[in-house]
Amino acid sequence: MPYAVTVVFDIKEGKMEEFMEHILNNARCSVRDEPGCRQFDVCTDPDVPNTVFLYELYDDLAAFEAHQTMPHYKATGPKVADLVANKTLRTYARVDR
């Protein structure tokens, strides 16, 4: 069953460029290297300049759990920890119609 993950990051003032470098690399590696990662979008809103929204789609919960064990995922967390003021993660399982 498809599994969606959303994350909203509030980035500290002056840290957006550095944050984007790391999160875009994580997104590229996730889609390229993880068979269960179907989509990994990094989104911004010009009207909310220090906020980043991620939309990730995985084959299932197991694929998301595998994502969390990947070297690029594990490397990204420590690199962005001091750049983020707040992080909100939500997960969703698709409801079959």
From TrEMBL:
Domain ABM as annotated: residue spans: 3-92
Annotated Gene3D superfamilies: 3.30.70.100
Enzyme Commission (EC) number: 1.-.-.-
EC top class, as a word: oxidoreductase
InterPro entries assigned to the protein according to its UniProt record, in alphabetical order: ABM_dom (IPR007138), AI-2_Isomerase_LsrG (IPR050744), Dimeric_a/b-barrel (IPR011008)
The keyword Oxidoreductase belongs to this UniProt entry's keyword annotation: yes
GO molecular-function terms, A-Z: monooxygenase activity
Protein's name according to its UniProt entry: Quinol monooxygenase
Taxonomic source organism: Tateyamaria armeniaca
